[in-house]
Design goal:
The structure is a single chain. The longest helix has 30 residues, at 160-189. This protein is 72% helix and 0% strand. It has helices spanning 2-10, 24-27, 35-62, 64-68, 77-80, 85-105, 108-126, 134-154, 160-189, 198-221, 235-249, 258-264, 266-285. It is an all-alpha fold. The protein folds into two domains: 1-156, Orthogonal Bundle (Tetracycline Repressor, domain 2); 159-286.
Length: 286
């Protein structure tokens, strides 16, 4: 049991939230309580979550020596020696084989998107995360791949506007996470380092936030929703969600990363739950 616990820690479950966009095709299907759809999407979510976790295992295995000298990372299970590299490699192979086999059971298209997603994460880890804006585009594109996988899992296509909204909002969150890193670094050491300048990030965040809301508004007003213009009533919740993320990004009290702050924030999570309910009702009733 201890090995499984250490393996779970290494897989960083808080990062699995990135795969949650796979539920959007279900939410926007107009039939969110369909148990067959829900089962397929839930399995798909686990597959993409395990693929995300497997890349975290790869990251810890390849950087084990440098992590041992890092005050923050030397407590990680592999770096500390609590989880051996051999056990981690065996678990990694098992997770990857199981995830890829399961993905193709949901359909060839779903399996292909899972493979694409995995190699995008590998490319991000090895090269792209060090390239300004290419890292952001990669994160946003991977979110687009995940929502596409969701449509393939339940054979319910979604509007191009919605996919573009996912892309822009993912870019906004990724940029905000980079800004959060700068803020925390500045608070701890008084120095700002990284591949981005603060002003560039501020401008990029504003552009991506505005674009996200404009694209979502266009989706709400388009004929693709099938609800006339009633979907516009969900827009205020999206606006508040964007504002809340900006507020959390600039939080001076907590030392948590943006991802952890979002997951622990009752206001954002409550808004997200309300948005899911409002959208589901609007699409089911009208």
């Amino acid at each position: 049991m201890k090995v499984l616990e250490l393996l779970l820690i290494t897989m960083r479950p808080y990062r699995w939230s990135r795969s949650a966009v796979i539920f959007m095709p279900l939410i926007f299907s107009g039939d969110p309580l369909n148990w067959v759809y829900l089962l397929k999407i839930s399995v798909g979510f686990l597959i993409f979550s395990f693929l995300t976790g497997s890349v975290n295992i790869i990251e810890d295995i390849t950087s084990v020596q440098s992590d041992k000298n890092d005050p923050a990372k030397r407590v990680f299970p592999i770096a500390s020696g609590d989880l051996s590299v051999n056990k981690a490699e065996f678990a990694l192979a098992t997770i990857l084989i199981g995830s890829f086999v399961a993905s193709f059971f949901l359909g060839p298209g779903f399996g292909i998107t899972a493979v694409i997603y995995f190699f995008m994460l590998i490319g991000y880890f090895l090269y792209l995360k060090k390239m300004p804006f290419m890292d952001i585009v990669t994160v946003a594109t991977s979110a687009g791949v995940v929502i596409t996988a969701g449509t393939l899992a339940i054979s319910k296509p979604v509007s191009g506007w919605l996919i573009f909204f996912v892309f822009m909002s993912s870019a906004f969150i990724a940029l905000s996470a980079r800004m959060r890193e700068l803020i925390l670094a500045k608070a701890s050491s008084g120095q700002v380092s990284g591949i981005y300048e603060e002003k560039v990030l501020e401008q990029s965040i504003m552009i991506s936030a505005s674009s996200s809301l404009i694209v979502y508004a266009m989706y709400c007003l388009s004929s693709a929703t099938g609800t006339g213009s009633n979907m516009i009533y969900s827009l205020p919740l999206a606006v508040y969600g964007i504002y809340r993320i900006i507020s959390l990004t600039n939080d001076k009290v907590s030392e948590l990363s943006l991802e952890k702050l979002i997951l622990k924030d009752p206001y954002f999570m409550g808004t997200l739950a309300a948005w899911v309910i409002v959208v589901s009702v609007l699409l089911a009733v009208f």
